[in-house]
Design goal:
The protein is of the alpha+beta class. It contains three helices and two strands.
């Protein structure tokens, strides 16, 4: 018999507040999608700090602009690899 139930992909409940370093490590081991804060689903860009500063960009226009700018940037590591 054909199963007519709808397929629902697994979901992750996003954290409503910033995770501590230990909570982030645990979440990353379980499912890396648990690290994405709830705010990232509502705002085009989210920034934070956990040891180092991080940014999460969701806005399509900003992503295109960033990719375009990144294609022209060179770092010292890139220059060393070209020699």
């Amino acid at each position: 018999m054909l199963d007519t139930t709808k397929f629902l992909p697994p979901t992750v409940a996003p954290p409503t507040r910033p995770l501590s370093i230990l909570q982030s490590i645990r979440a990353a081991r379980r499912n890396v999608l648990e690290l994405i804060p709830e705010l990232a689903y509502r705002q085009p860009m989210v920034s934070g700090r956990m040891g180092a500063r991080w940014h999460m960009v969701q806005d399509p226009v900003a992503l295109r602009r960033w990719r375009f700018a990144a294609s022209f940037s060179t770092t010292s590591k890139t220059i060393q690899n070209q020699r």
